[in-house]
Amino acid sequence: MHIKIRNQLRIFFIVILSAGIITILVKYNSYEQRILLYKMLPILIVFYLLVVEYPLAVKRNTSRSDQWWKKIFVYVISLFAFYLMLIAGLDLYNVTKDIFKGYNERAVTIIKRELQYRASDKVWVQDSNEVRTFSLAPGYIDVSLDSSYDVHIFEHSRILIPVKKASLR
Question: How far apart are CA 93 and CA 44, in angstroms?
Answer without folding.
Answer: 10
